[in-house]
Design goal:
about 350 residues
Length: about 350
């Protein structure tokens, strides 16, 4: 990690600590200690297992994609990738650092850059698609609740959904209507000339066209791997379900019973969408606020709500970042020659 990344990581830890302290400002610390002392650690262990499954199943996805490209790509390296992704997603705005970090990690293992980019691209397409599917279901189940609780922020949820859906639609258009999509893209970006210098505009246009061309070439390969994509989609759905169910087990760990499982998962799905729209790394601030507001209906105890929020944040954000720091220290295995797929 660069010095800048270390500074951002330290800043996010300090900011997170500040938010935790702020959340506890009106909370009886005796009640908090009592809630922790009477916790059902068995249910909390299940929540820990769920976040491990979330990260581990992404490693399974990597292994599936690499199986006929680099059979020698080890499970250690496959599981290392999602941890590195979590770290760099957690310290960059809009989680933009995860993809480049994964690419670098694969290059360190000796994977060809083109193959590495192809695998990461396919993983991204499937993951985004499953997010949209899960979000549509959650929107139908829990949007009336989130609209009542978050008011204006509910518009952010819809906006987030539109962005994720637009990404999928754009990728599908490149795959099936390449020439038309490329022509439309070059028309749409023309107003950019009004705000930047000609050289800058040409550079942006060239970069976008190059990315569209690259994705189209990779999509041709993707069309021949529908069986593999279906298998990965199944694993990704399980991965997301393991993530979305975490708040339910945390509430059970705090002896909060009578929680509607489907509603809890749906609300967590909507929070996931809200977090993706906050420019601060990890959605810090917005994540904690959204959880506290949406899950307040499940308990009348303010201290339990705050403890649930803190435990949830530790598992879904800080756990992945610290695991990623450990993964960075693990020396990757070198792959043998690819099979040229």
């Amino acid at each position: 990690m660069s010095r800048k990344n270390w500074l951002v990581l330290i800043l996010m830890l300090l900011l997170g600590g500040g938010i935790f302290a702020y959340s506890l400002r009106n909370t009886n610390l005796h009640e908090v200690s009592s809630d922790l002392a009477t916790m059902n650690w068995g249910w909390f262990l299940v929540a820990v297992i769920c976040i491990c499954l979330y990260l581990g199943l992404e490693g399974v996805v990597v292994k599936i994609f690499m199986s006929n490209r680099y059979p020698s790509f080890t499970w250690k390296d496959a599981l290392r990738l999602p941890l590195i992704e979590q770290l760099f997603n957690g310290i960059t705005p809009f989680s933009t650092g995860g993809q480049p970090a994964q690419l670098l990690a694969m290059l360190q293992s000796g994977v060809d850059g083109g193959i590495a980019s192809s695998v990461l691209l396919m993983k991204f397409v499937v993951f985004q698609s499953m997010i949209v599917v899960n979000f549509i279901i959650s929107l139908l189940i829990g949007f009336h609740y989130i609209e009542e609780k978050l008011h204006v922020l509910s518009l952010l949820v819809v906006f987030g959904f539109v962005i994720h859906l637009s990404v999928i639609v754009a990728l599908l258009m490149v795959m099936y209507w390449y020439r038309f999509t490329k022509r439309m893209m070059n028309i749409v970006i023309k107003p950019v000339r009004w705000f930047v210098k000609p050289q800058r505009y040409d550079k942006i246009k060239y970069s976008l066209n190059e990315k569209v061309d690259s994705f189209y070439k990779e999509s041709i390969k993707m069309k021949t791997e529908y069986g593999k994509l279906a298998k990965v989609a199944g694993v990704t759905i399980l991965q997301l379900l393991a993530y979305y169910i975490i708040p339910y087990f945390i509430l059970l760990a705090l002896n909060i019973h009578g929680v509607n499982l489907i509603m809890a998962m749906s609300l967590h799905t909507l929070i996931f969408m809200i977090i993706s729209l906050f420019p601060i790394p990890g959605g810090t601030g917005g994540a904690e606020y959204s959880f506290a507001v949406l899950f307040t209906a499940f308990t009348s105890s303010h201290s339990k709500l705050v403890v649930a929020m803190l435990l949830w944040r530790v598992l879904t954000y800080y756990f992945g970042m610290f695991a990623g720091m450990f993964a960075l220290m693990v020396k990757p295995d070198k792959v043998k020659n690819s099979m040229g797929v």
